[in-house]
């Protein structure tokens, strides 16, 4: 029951998230210009920021089953707003879309990290990432067919999957993380506020590079390198296949390596994979770059949450909220900062990516050495 209760809501929510990835295409079928889609999509990002924060706070004080059901219930009526001709009403709905999806993702993370400890946490987080990626891919494909053949069914897709999400959240574990899960996590807290801030900063710098992939990275490869849309589509397909095949096995293979060391490796791979775009000349160069940054996200995103929970002075929910806020903020800031840099040239963008990667690696390496020194002195004291 515990496993089913966690994974089913994640699966259905990922189907919604995959469909939401094509909101820009849907808005264009409704007659909105490219410039008119900017505000609704930006508000969806703002909603994601709010949802990350509030979802984490709520998970500390309210039972996750109740919160999950309330958030999922929004999808029974929100899709009706997709068909309206009132532009500002659509903008408001998109804000709620971002809020709901981000809050649900945060709640699920809070449930996993409060239900499991040790290596089991990383394994469950790996399962979550696997389900999430498969669900997003399936949702995007389904909505692609809907938009191609009968775009009027767009709203019904979200209402149906939303209803399934609502039913599945009824099976979420019903303990309050504030009463049970919080103690399980806080048992390993070192309350090193500086370590927490440094590690979160290193993650955020890496996410700024990672956030370039679906926009400026792909745009550069299309316009400056001259790769086709088919090749770029293959890039995301290859990434998804690698995650599906390697996410869980690599978590098991690397289980004896320190979480901070794995985070350092993941940050380096993402930075090299994205920053190396300036060296791409052929399809195969792109596929190699894709494999590198995909391996980076496989190695990084699971252990770094566990590491943040080890050193945070905050509650479980607030720590997860900060983790999710880093993702949401990077999705908004990466294209804006990248867009400013390409006014100089793309070379400047890739150099900044490599520079920020070096800073992330330096910060994480410092934390690794600090951890080793602490272990050494602790062993000396015990001896």
UniProtKB/TrEMBL annotation:
It is found in: Cell membrane. It holds the Pfam family MFS_1. This is MFS transporter. GO terms for molecular function: transmembrane transporter activity. It comes from Vibrio lentus. The chain crosses the membrane at residues 7-27, 39-58, 65-81, 87-110, 130-147, 153-172, 193-218, 230-249, 261-280, 286-305, 325-344, 350-369. Its main location: membrane. GO terms for cellular component: plasma membrane. It is a multi-pass membrane protein. It comes from the Bacteria. Keywords: Cell membrane, Membrane, Transmembrane, Transmembrane helix, Transport. PANTHER family: INTEGRAL MEMBRANE TRANSPORT PROTEIN (PTHR23517:SF3), RESISTANCE PROTEIN MDTM, PUTATIVE-RELATED-RELATED (PTHR23517). Signal peptide: none annotated.
């Amino acid at each position: 029951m515990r496993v089913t209760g966690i994974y089913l809501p994640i699966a259905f929510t990922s189907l919604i998230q995959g469909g939401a990835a094509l909101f820009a295409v849907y808005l264009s079928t409704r007659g909105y210009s490219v410039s008119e889609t900017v505000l609704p999509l930006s508000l969806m990002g703002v909603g994601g920021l709010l949802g990350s924060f509030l979802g984490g706070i709520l998970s500390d004080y309210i039972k996750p089953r109740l919160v999950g059901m309330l958030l999922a219930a929004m999808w029974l009526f929100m899709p009706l707003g997709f068909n309206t001709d009132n532009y500002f009403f659509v903008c408001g709905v998109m804000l709620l879309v971002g809020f709901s999806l981000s809050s649900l993702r945060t709640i699920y993370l809070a449930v996993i990290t409060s239900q499991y400890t040790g290596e089991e946490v990383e394994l469950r987080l790996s399962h979550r990432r696997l389900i999430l990626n498969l669900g997003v891919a399936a949702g995007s494909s389904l909505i692609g067919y809907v938009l191609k053949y009968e775009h009027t069914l767009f709203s019904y897709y979200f209402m149906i999957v939303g209803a399934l999400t609502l039913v599945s959240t009824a099976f979420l574990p019903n303990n309050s993380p504030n009463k049970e899960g919080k103690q399980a996590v806080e048992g390993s807290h070192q309350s090193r506020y500086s370590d927490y801030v440094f590690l979160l900063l290193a993650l955020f710098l890496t996410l700024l590079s990672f956030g370039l992939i679906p926009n400026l990275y792909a745009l550069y490869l299309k316009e400056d390198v001259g790769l086709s849309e088919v090749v770029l589509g293959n890039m995301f397909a290859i990434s998804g296949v690698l995650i599906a095949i390697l996410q869980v096995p690599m978590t098991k293979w690397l289980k004896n390596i320190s979480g901070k060391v794995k985070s350092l490796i993941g940050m380096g791979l993402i930075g090299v994979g994205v920053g190396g775009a300036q060296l791409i000349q052929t399809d195969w160069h792109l596929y190699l770059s894709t494999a590198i940054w995909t391996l980076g996200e496989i190695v990084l995103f699971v252990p770094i949450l566990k590491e943040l929970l080890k050193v945070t002075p905050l509650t479980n929910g607030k720590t997860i909220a900060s983790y999710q806020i880093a993702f949401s903020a990077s999705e908004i800031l990466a294209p804006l900062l990248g867009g400013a840099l390409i006014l100089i040239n793309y070379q400047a963008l890739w150099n900044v990516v490599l520079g920020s990667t070096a800073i992330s690696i330096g910060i994480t390496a410092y934390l690794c050495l600090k951890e080793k020194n602490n272990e050494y002195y602790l062993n000396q004291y015990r001896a």
